Amino acid sequence: MKPAEPTAATRAGTPRFPAFLLTTGTALAGCTTEIAVIGRDLGATTSSSPASSSSTAGGDDPGTLDPGAGGGSAQGSAGAGGDERCEPKLAGVVRDFKAFSTDGGHPDFENFAGNGLKGIVAPELGPDDKPVYAHEGGTEHTTGPEAFYQWYHDDPTVNVPIRYDVPLQVSESGLGLFSGDQFFPIDDQGWGNEGRVHNFGFTYELHMTFDYQRGGVFFFNGDDDLWVFINRRLAIDMGGLHSPTSALLELDAYAEALGIEVGKEYPLDFFYAERRSGSAVFTMMTSFKFTNCDPILK
Q: CA–CA separation, 41 vs 47, rounded Å?
């Protein structure tokens, strides 16, 4: 399946939530049928994270919003947070990197710019449950396989791993949301901010399990790289440097391609990278019922 290019503009730092995600989660009226791998690409800004961009002052922590009527409840309640069997842990690992121009810096951070690049990773996860770099050498947005391997593997010579739990809020309508227009989870940690207002150079990986139920949706808006795997198959490809971009994954439409069946449990593997100072947007909304009672840290 050939990925489609973004077709609609969205303001940087302002997620465009499809109306149905804010109500019943049943249909997306009037939306484009073009596809970003399997997830539906809902649009991107036309410019990348430029080298000349400056961060927003103030350093606000990521906030949370209630996506449905009736108020929110804490992570772990029924609906997107899971069910009554346990309190699922949306816990992952942030890895901090130095900018390439500094001593000990990584060549993929603060070094590239562009409008995104699909196909950086292979369509299936590797045996270690990590993305597999799909090229023998570099691309317009990456240096090569050895450098990419360090993104999601501990290497004390170039990265510092730090645990981060996503504070997903779940509404009475059963939708979970985490919204971060200023997503800086490791300010003043790891290698530090390197003279900037925030710590911009990091990756984040999150592993979960969920019960596939009809109508399941997963929405993400952010920059830079993002790859989402369902049942070990690439479902959303938003790789490369780019301004905040949105994608929607509707499970029912692509169940066959993902090899999933209603009523069964599957892994969801999530890989993110913030590689250029300027902005850091990270918003996700989902109706998935997560089932992992304990954190899955890899």
A: 16
Residues 6 or more apart whose Cβ sits within 8 Å of residue 188: 199
Give the CA distances from residue 222 to residues 118, 145, 216, 226, 280, in Å, rounded to whole numbers and listed in that order.
15, 24, 20, 8, 7
15 compared with 94, residue with greater pLDDT: 94
> What tokens were used for 135?
């090229």
Which of 63-67, 72-76, 144-148 is the least confident region?
63-67
> What pTM was estimated for this model as a whole?
0.77
Run of H or E residues at 57: none
What is the Cα–Cα distance from 66 to 163, expressed in whole angstroms?
Answer: 25
Q: What is the pLDDT of residue 56?
A: 30
Question: How far apart (Å, rounded) are the C-alpha atoms in residues 25 and 20?
Answer: 5
- Rounded Cα gap, residues 84 and 53, in angstroms: 45
Measured distance between the N- and C-terminal CA atoms of the chain, rounded to whole angstroms: 29
Give the pLDDT of residue 42: 46
In 3-state terms the chain splits into helix, strand, coil percentages (rounded to 5) of: 5, 30, 65
- pLDDT score of 10 more than 80: no
Q: What is the pLDDT of residue 85?
A: 56
- The burial of 33, by beta-carbon neighbours within 10 Å (0-12 exposed, 13-18 middle, 19 or more buried), is given as exposed
Runs of H (alpha helix) within 231-270:
255-258
3-state secondary structure of 240: coil
CA distance 228 to 237: 7
